[in-house]
Amino acid sequence: MVGGQDDQVFDGGSFVLNRHGRPAHVLPVFGECLRHVDFLREEGRWIAAEGEICSHPDAWEQEYRAMVEATRGYLRKSGFEKVVLGLSGGIDSALVATVATDALGAENVHCVMLPSDDTSQGSLDDAGGIARRLGCRYDVVPIAEGRAAIARSLAPLFEGLGADLTEENIQSRLRGLLLMALSNKFGAMLLTTGNKSELAVGYATIYGDMNGGYNPIRDLYKTRVFGQCRWRNAHHRPWMKGPAGEVIPVAVIDKPPSAELRPDQKDEDSLPPYEVLDAILEGLVDREQSVAELVAQGHEREVVKTVEHLIYLSEYKRFQSAPGPRLTPRAFWLDRRYPIVNRWRDPG
């Protein structure tokens, strides 16, 4: 089998080995291929006659194609032809829009910008620029009126209480509601756009930006998101249905990540720098290292313990999150399952 099924990506690359691990045939990855293999008897033993040895792409290309093939397969096998997604002007949604376009073609991808009063003009410009470069349908649906209506409805209950994370999450959940309405009305699957770093520490709003039927970058750490955007800008392959060239503006890749749920918000206000966060997450999640081992590698104990705590707290969100392709040794879902509630925790 070749292609995607739920979180699995069947990548092909079948091979035939002779004694001592000598390859006789190596087939290409991610494509269907029929190969005839002759077996010869030499010195009383059967060996495979040597054939074509296909070279495989590097890790960046295979990872990107896995996301494309998984998205294409999931949509086709679930009966959907089109997708809709929220395009914020940030790097995560830009990559998801690009993967979707390469998988389905621009005519089947609907990008929607849902600005609030906290959305910068730069994000509006970037979102529109990404959609134009990809050739996708692009609409702007402001949420200010809906946000104000919800605030008025809740005002009697919230009287005397200051604004906090609640109001930020209302924005995200309102966007999720509108995107799901578009999905229902037009029969397009909603793609969600959270990366593995955010999913690991719960930097995502359940029933908000986590809404969706599939997430192509679910198992992609944030630092890999940056790398994949740069790789896609520099490469184009025949299996991509999207355009060649710089489809994700460099300005989008280089600007500081922000959820833009409050004025001047930056991800690093709440999280360690992504280079640090991802290194800790890879240790705790992918390699199952202890806090002590990561501290011995040079990480600050307080930071590691905080990240570990956030991973535990966010377990319930991951149990309700959209599926996506497995790209790492410990993808959340089948590879790494922890109880949502657990009285005992390792104090180390």
Automatic annotation (TrEMBL):
For this record, the Gene Ontology CC terms, alphabetical, are: cytoplasm
Question: What SUPFAM superfamilies would the database entry show?
Answer: Adenine nucleotide alpha hydrolases-like
Gene3D superfamilies the UniProt entry points to: HUPs
| Entry keyword annotation includes Metal-binding | no
**Biological process terms in GO annotation:** NAD+ biosynthetic process
GO-annotated molecular function: ATP binding; glutaminase activity; NAD+ synthase (glutamine-hydrolyzing) activity; NAD+ synthase activity
Q: Provide the reaction this enzyme catalyses.
A: deamido-NAD(+) + NH4(+) + ATP = AMP + diphosphate + NAD(+) + H(+)
Which domain of life does this protein belong to? Bacteria
Q: Which UniProt keywords are present, listed alphabetically?
A: ATP-binding, Ligase, NAD, Nucleotide-binding
A Pfam match: NAD_synthase
In short, the EC number is: 6.3.1.5
The residue ranges of the NAD/GMP synthase domain are 65-319
Judged by the first EC level, this protein's enzyme class is: ligase
Where is coiled-coil annotated?
A: none
> Which pathway does this chain act in?
Cofactor biosynthesis; NAD(+) biosynthesis
Q: What family is it from?
A: In the C-terminal section; belongs to the NAD synthetase family. Belongs to the NAD synthetase family.
- Protein name as catalogued: NH(3)-dependent NAD(+) synthetase
Its source organism is Celeribacter indicus
Source organism phylogeny: Bacteria, Pseudomonadati, Pseudomonadota, Alphaproteobacteria, Rhodobacterales
